[in-house]
Amino acid sequence: MTAARSSSRLFVAGIYAADLVFAAQRLPSLGETIQASGFMRSHGGKGSNQAVAAARAGADVCFFTLIGDDAFGEDARALWRNEGVRSLARVIPGQATGAAGIFVEESGDNAIVVYPGACRTMGACDLEMVEAEIAAAKVFVIQLEQPVEAALRGLELARRHGVITVLNPAPACPLPEALFPLCDYILPNESEASRLTGLPAETPTQAEAAARALLSKGVGSVVMTLGDRGSLFCNSETSFTVAAHKAGACVDTTGAGDGYTAGFATALAQGRSPRQAMLFATALAGISVTRRGAAASMPTRAEIETALAAMAQPPQ
C-alpha cells in the first residue's frame, strides 16, 4: 500500500561514510609522507550529508542507505536520530559501513577517496523495497556514490509516482542515456558537467553550452554550480545565474556541493521557485564552507534565513 504523500517530504537515497579528515599545508605527492596539522573524525557520504543538511534546513527527510553491522553503522544511526532524519537504512550482515579519507589544504580545497562499503551492493531491488516511501515524497534526491543501477531505478520509481526528481551526478561517471530524461533537475558542478557531456565548462559561455548539451539528452532543467562564480540555471525556456554568497573565510569546501543540493531540494519541496531554491541553496553552501567537516558544517534554518536576508540587502 502506498503511503500518504507529504506535501513537503524529501526522500534522499545514497551512502553514509565515516569521514577521517586530515588537515595539512598541502596535499602529499605520490609516495610522500607529510605531517598533518589537524585531524577529525566526522560524518560524511553524499546521501547522508544531504539528508542531514536538509533536516537542519527545515525539511521533513527520509534517508535510505545500506550500512554494515559495525561501529561506523552504529554512529550513523545515532547521527540520524540526533538530526531528526527518518532513517530507512538497512543493515547488511558481514559488510562494512562506508568510509572516506579526506585531505584538506590550508586554502580549504580538498581531495577525497571514498569506499562505499555495504552500498557497493545497492541495486534496483533495494529501491523497490522502499517504493511506498518514495511515492509519499514531494522530491526525490540521489547521487552516484552507489551503483548507477540503483540511481536509475530510484529515478524511475519517483517518476512513476509523480515525485520531483533531482540527480546530483557526483562523482561523475558514464550514465545510460535512459537516465537523463528521468531527471527533472540535474545538479552537476563544472567538472561533472564536462565529464557528462565531453565539453569544457570553465567559462560562462562554455558552462551554458554544457548545460544545453545535458538538456539535449532529455534533462528537464540544469543547475550547475560554478564555485565562487555562483550557479547557473538552464532549461528550454530560460537561463540565468545566481551569485555566490560569501559568509566568511573559506576553511573547508568538503560537503559544499552536498549542502547546495540539499538546500535546493528542500526549497523545491517547500514550494519555492527554482530561482528561490538556488538562492536558498547558495546561502546554505556559503555558510558551510566557513566551517570544517561535511555534515558537521551544515547550517540551521535560522542561519540560512539570516543569510538570505543579508543577501537581499544592497551593498553599503
UniProtKB/TrEMBL annotation:
Carbohydrate kinase PfkB domain location: 10-301
Modulation of this protein's activity: Activated by a monovalent cation that binds near, but not in, the active site. The most likely occupant of the site in vivo is potassium. Ion binding induces a conformational change that may alter substrate affinity.
Species in which this protein is naturally found: Allopusillimonas soli
Signal sequence range: none
EC number: 2.7.1.15
Protein name listed in UniProt: Ribokinase
Subunit note: Homodimer.
Top-level enzyme category: transferase
Residue numbers binding ATP: 189, 225-230, 257-258
Pathway(s) this gene product operates in, as recorded in its UniProt entry: Carbohydrate metabolism; D-ribose degradation; D-ribose 5-phosphate from beta-D-ribopyranose: step 2/2
Residues that, per the record, bind substrate: 17-19, 45-49, 145, 258
General function of this protein: Catalyzes the phosphorylation of ribose at O-5 in a reaction requiring ATP and magnesium. The resulting D-ribose-5-phosphate can then be used either for sythesis of nucleotides, histidine, and tryptophan, or as a component of the pentose phosphate pathway.
Principal location: cytoplasm
HAMAP family (alphabetical): Ribokinase
Co-factor: note: Requires a divalent cation, most likely magnesium in vivo, as an electrophilic catalyst to aid phosphoryl group transfer. It is the chelate of the metal and the nucleotide that is the actual substrate.
Gene Ontology CC, one term: cytosol
GO biological process: D-ribose catabolic process
Pfam families in the record: PfkB
TM ranges: none
Cellular localisation: Cytoplasm
Source organism phylogeny: Bacteria, Pseudomonadati, Pseudomonadota, Betaproteobacteria, Burkholderiales
PANTHER family tied to this protein: RIBOKINASE, SUGAR KINASE
GO function term, MF aspect, one: metal ion binding
InterPro entries: Carboh/pur_kinase_PfkB_CS, PfkB_dom, Ribo/fructo_kinase, Ribokinase, Ribokinase-like
Active site: 258 (proton acceptor)
Positions bound to K(+): 252, 254, 288, 291, 293, 297
Key words, A-Z: ATP-binding, Carbohydrate metabolism, Cytoplasm, Kinase, Magnesium, Metal-binding, Nucleotide-binding, Potassium, Transferase
